[in-house]
Amino acid sequence: MIKTIRIDLISDIVCPWCIIGYKNLEHALSKLSDSLKADIYWHPFELNPMMKSEGENLREHIAEKYGTSLEASIAARQTISELGQDLGFEFKFSDDMRIYNTRKAHQLLLWAQSESLQLDLEMALFQAYFTQRQDISNTTVLLNIAESLGLERNVCELVLQDESWAEAVSSTEYQWLEAGINAVPAMIIDKKHLISGAQPNEILVEALIEIARL
Fold first, then answer.
1. Which fold has domain 3-212?
2. Which residues form a coiled coil (predicted)?
3. What is the DSSP string of 85-108?
4. Which of 51, 142, 139 is nearest to 98 (CA)?
5. pLDDT tens readout for residues 18-56
6. Where does 3-111 show beta strands of DSSP type E?
7. Mean pLDDT over each residue of the chain, to the nearest integer
8. What is d(CA 9, CA 196) in angstroms, rounded to the nearest whole number?
């Protein structure tokens, strides 16, 4: 008998460790597929909710926010790229790469859950940003991505224009902050077990076995 667990994933699209964390989870679940499956729900956590519409140079942003040196930035990008390659995800960093506001993207992601396409949209957005270097704050870019997955463009446009969806993103983020989540990725299993950070799939396998009591 296969046991089903719930996994709530709190993340941001411009966070490289979030896609690495998910890919590690994906690999862990595949190793346990004979005994375990997961219903995954994605939740918003904007790393830069006040980011201006034109975005900022990614390297300059990281240097200003975290005090990261150029050498450390180069090393981090190399590490992330290698981890991505091992997990089947391609990072294409460049010196002129920008970081963008993700509020509208999260509005679409919240709504896409009701259409059973949240995971597909999440993966498409990660790829659009990190692999294709697209501006995922741009409405046309978001609508093109959503439409390519079979979502109705005119409905998606309404979601992006509807202030109540923006408020839903904000209130959801506040709830997670109130719950003590202040960094991503964060995974909450069956609403009570927290796994923080992009853990290797071996550690996730052990954690899932223990939590699910397989």
1. Glutaredoxin (3.40.30)
2. none
3. HHHT------TT-EE---HHHHHH
4. 51
5. 999 999 999 999 999 999 999 999 999 999 999 998 899
6. 3-11, 36-44, 56-57, 98-99
7. 96
8. 10
pLDDT confidence tier of residue 146, bands split at 50, 70 and 90: very high
Q: What is the pLDDT at residue 53?
A: 84
CB 13 within 8 A of CB 126: yes
Ranges of each domain in the chain: 3-212
pTM: 0.95
Q: Do residues 90 and 28 lie in contact, with contact meaning Cβ atoms separated by under 8 Å?
A: no
6 CB neighbour count, 10 Å cutoff: 12
Q: How many residues does the chain have?
A: 214
Q: For residue 146, give the amino acid letter.
A: A
First to last CA, the chain: 10
The pLDDT tens digits of the residues spanning 175-205 come to 999 999 999 999 999 999 999 999 999 999 9
